[in-house]
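Handout, section B. The chain below has 430 residues.
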Amino acid sequence: MRERVDVVVIGGGIVGAAAAYFLAKRGVSVTLVEKGRVAFEQSSRNWGWVRQNGRNLREVPAAIVSRRIWAGLRGEIGTDVGWVSAGNVDLAYSAEEMRTFEAWRRGAAELGLDTEVLSREAVRDRLPWLKDGYVGGIFSPLDGQADPHRAAPALARAAQEQGAEVVTDCIVEALDVDDGAVRGVRTERGTIAAGRVIVAAGAWSSRLLWPLGLRLPQRKVRATVLATTPAPALSPVVVWTDDVAMRQGPDGRFILAGGGRSHYDVDLELARFAPRFARSLFDARRRGRIRLHLGRTALRDLRTLLPEPVGEPLWPQVRAEEPEPDVDAAWRTFRRFRELVPQAADVGVDRIWAGYIDYTPDAVPIIDAPGTPRGLVIATGFSGHGFALGPVGGLLASQLATDEPTAVDVRSFRLSRFDEGDTAEDVLHF
């Protein structure tokens, strides 16, 4: 490893890879450090949606910029990342949902995003292969999809081509801070000196920042996804129904997920920040959208708090963590998918997997240079939006790390908003 660089990026997901690329492109010396492999965790396990539609209105300006980056990424880095722009349709199943869609459309239009509220007939014209039951929907024509297995690795390679160093299978044990400023990072292979450090470590960011006295409220949600065997070509439009989120890739396979049902493995972050998440947890529990699990993850975290030899350090245990999918839920999603898409009656399940989504209390990311310690930049908490927002998240982090004007106003993404009571929990989204 290089002993000294301008910026160290912690985390080899799509946000960290994009940050390293944009920094190296501007001639900044940068080392990206990843505890496992590039895109091993959620950046390769997500749905592959690039969606502006339905975002929290505070996120819309960033989503617009990110979509533009996606559209030009192949020309920018010379690699096909599977980008297809065919639009996104979210379906409504009640008049109340239609009113929400219309209110959101007006708010998004004020921010420069054009979407269209669709009648039942208009939805049927766009998606004739989808079983009826909806009352309408909302369509964002510029939304699209990309391949999660290609995107972050392609950005990491592009960063290397621009001069960045990418170090994998290397745990960052701590950030070096002295006299109120970042001095670099300590890794299991040695120390890297740097005046700026970007923490883009996804679901592990809060753990890294806790020893610095920074309280970054974050919880992990274990979400299950499945891929079908190839189906007849129906549509590249990504679709969200009441029960199933779906997209059909160029190879004919559908990527499917349940409509918002997730598992919470009780861990140290959930315990530390329970009051911050009480409202969202109560609401999700009431609607039957979550299941809480107290087991192996909680025991592991308790051991990290105990002194050795009883205790065990966290990072070697999660170098390449493989969350257990909810196979029963996946099969329920698959059966519902075949009910909704009769043309897929003969397709099967190719594979099932799970990943951890890192959520903030208001489900809006933290992209911030908090000032304490000086030189620290945070880009995490993308709350299930990280793949779509990854390119702009990396861009904004790189701009904060070099004191450049940011592509969009990042005030809504500051860490201090949780203490200031200026969160986005009640800002319109769906």
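Note. The longest strand covers residues 349-359. Compare this with the example in section A.
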